[in-house]
Amino acid sequence: MRRLLVTGGAGFIGVNFVRYWREHHPDDGIVVLDALTYAGNRASLAGLEDADGFRFVHDDIRNRSLVEDLMVDEAIDTIVHFAAESHVDRSIAGPDAFLETNVLGTHALLKAAKAVWLDRGTGREHRFHHISTDEVYGSLHWDDPAFSETTPYAPNSPYSASKAASDHLVRAYHHTYGLDVTTTNCSNNYGPYQFPEKLIPLFLVNILRGLPLPVYGDGKNVRDWLFVEDHCRAIDLVLTSGGSGEVYNVGGKCERSNLELVDALCAAADRVLGGSPDLLSAFPDAPQARGEHARDLITFVEDRPGHDRRYAIDTSKIEARLGHEPRVLLAEGLERTIHWYLDNVAWWEALIHDR
Ligand code: NAD
Description:
It contains twelve helices and twelve strands. The chain is α/β, with parallel strands linked by helices. The strands form three sheets. It has a seven-stranded parallel beta sheet, sandwiched between helices.
């Protein structure tokens, strides 16, 4: 039985991970530590908070003494570190919060982990798993090979620079102090519970409300898309069988230009909404309710400064060593995501009204 401290467990991937973990490891204890920034949503943990073996703590990862106390009181042996400022556009408008949480926050956690697991000599088996991003590797040209674990770091945004710094700190705590760490660098996740400022949920909600779909630049920037459940399974494999000090890239084997992705989302939304008179009357502003197509809402807007052209992930290491392959193809993942947002309107409407 493990006892997990999940930071950022009220955010998009964290919530999916906590739900995944409870389903697959029901006997393990989970403490979620989350500062509930704009991206954290306690409502996403509905149904978990009353469960045995689950505890939510509303606090900041930079509060090192609190983290140390939590780790001791709850006999934590595993930290799964999701907490971060995660939106590139926000990092361009205001980088400071990114350095505070992603760099100093990660360092505070590492110091707490070292103090409790190493310095006090509990001898407890432990693991600090750090969630990072493919964006630390910079931008690829069309014909460049995909990012592997040995691709040199070349972060281009304040967000990716802060994540790169945190990756280096995690690595350094392993090499210098012997902390048992692993890191995963993953591509763009999508799925349930994603805050509607990121591309897929934003565009989906805009389709349901009949609002424009603002595509940056020429829409040709390429990303790899990973269904969040496939990501959670990868983290499980790394926690269970990953080697100490190792880094694993996690991808969806699904490179698409932004325009191709938006086209696929629009087509899926047309299919799901167009086939349901009930949905058409529930969402009268959606283009399908007027016999039009979601694609008609696409508009092109000025590109984001420094917008990376292409990310692609070489997944051969995690495939060969841990047997991880993505299972959910884009068409299925988009349909599942659309159905989740249709079934959870109150969840996203509350976030839109709060903004
Ligand atoms: P998110 O923005 O949805 O959630 C982040 C969570 O961290 C929120 O619940 C927020 O309240 C919490 N948080 C922020 N600052 C905190 C602090 N100082 N103390 C405690 N909690 C704090 O992010 P996400 O999309 O779920 O991403 C999770 C992790 O995965 C991040 O580290 C991100 O860099 C990484 N990642 C995400 C993606 C993606 O596509 N979403 C891709 C690659 C990597």
